[in-house]
Automatic annotation (TrEMBL):
Keywords carried by this UniProt record: Signal
Name of the protein in its database record: Branched-chain amino acid ABC transporter substrate-binding protein
Ranges for domain Leucine-binding protein: 3-317
Pfam families hit by this protein: Peripla_BP_6 (PF13458)
Length: 338
């Protein structure tokens, strides 16, 4: 059997290099230890500072499977430049394209769970403010939160950075990690029933806040404690142990996303029986399965409709899932401030 040629384009340097390298390490782990009887040869190309150029270099290796980069900006640029089918595991705000398969839940759903959670618990009603950056990701996440709030009959207020923070009972913030840190450090939480940041969904970004992080809400594509029992690939426990053994580190969330993309792409390649992109895409459209990352099912546009974003809250220095109800490990609590 001929080896499977795989190529990953992702930032290995620059501001996104840390998360990009985590994804690359996880995909290498998949190729070396979790590809079953197939021999996978993985090529990794640095997407910084030119995602389009890196994508073309990767296509030049004539891969059977092509994986896009971490980060919505690089992922969108790479997808637009690609002539091949791209497995997108790192960009939640990538416009639908016929040559892209999205493993992630879309950015517009990042805060819909938080809105549903608060609508469920705050029976007396509340106003929701959304502060977002003027980027594709910011508009996607912010617009999704506003649309869900309006659907539920919640009064909404919107501000686009650098505008001032909107006055509202609940505030949801979508910006770059550095911007969110600055806002979180100076924001007056008093009088707010809840505050959410995209960065609160991950361990690393808001760690410098200390106790100010307590009670904050955030979206998480994955949390080990809430990982499902997979019918494709290893369990979360097996993956975590293998990743720690290989790297000596805990996997950042992009690592899990990249690893799942490898499992899914190889399954579709096997089902297709050939490395023709059209056949692999058709196999992906038929696939409905569960990896350690969650459910995978795409619509006819390649958009992910099976995977669901978790809403987490910081409690006692750790993230706990508070929504959706079937995944929740704890009940939501109001902010611990006057």
């Amino acid at each position: 059997m001929a080896p499977v040629r795989a190529a990953l384009v992702t930032p290995l340097s620059g501001p996104m290099g840390g998360f990009g390298r985590a994804g690359a390490a996880a995909l290498a782990l998949w190729a070396d230890r979790f590809s079953g009887p197939d021999q996978v040869r993985l090529t990794v190309v640095d997407a910084h500072p030119d995602a389009r150029g890196a994508l073309h270099r990767a296509e030049g290796t004539r891969p059977d499977l092509l994986f896009g980069p971490y980060g919505s900006g690089p992922a969108a640029r790479a997808a637009a430049a690609a002539s091949r089918l791209v497995w997108n595991h790192g960009g939640a705000q990538v416009p639908p394209r016929r040559n892209v398969i999205n493993v992630l839940a879309p950015a517009r759903t990042y805060f819909t769970g938080a809105v549903q959670l608060l609508h469920h618990h705050l029976a007396g009603g509340f106003s929701a403010g959304v502060l977002h950056s003027d980027t594709g990701f910011g508009r996607g996440v912010g617009g999704g939160a506003l649309a869900e709030a309006q659907r539920l009959g919640i009064e909404t207020r919107r501000a686009v950075l650098p505008e001032s923070t909107p006055e509202a009972d609940v505030l949801l913030v979508v910006a770059s990690p550095a911007q969110e840190v600055r806002i979180a450090e100076t924001l007056d939480f008093r009088g707010r029933k809840a505050v959410g940041f995209v960065a609160a969904g991950v361990r690393e970004v808001l760690s410098g806040l200390g106790e100010r992080r307590e009670g904050l809400l955030g979206p998480a594509q994955w949390l080990a404690e809430a990982a499902p029992i997979p019918d494709e690939g290893p369990s979360a426990e097996e993956f975590l142990a293998a990743f720690r053994e290989r790297t000596g580190q805990e996997p950042a969330y992009p690592a899990v996303q990249a690893f799942a993309a490898g499992l899914l792409a190889l399954r579709c390649l096997r089902a297709a029986g050939a490395s023709r992109d059209a056949a692999v895409l058709e196999a992906a459209r038929r696939l409905d399965c569960t990896t350690l990352f969650g459910r995978f099912r795409i619509d006819t546009r390649g958009q992910q409709v099976g995977h669901r974003v978790l809403t987490v809250q910081w409690r006692g220095g750790r993230r706990v899932v508070v929504w959706p109800p079937e995944s929740a490990g704890a009940r939501w609590q109001p902010l611990p401030v006057a």
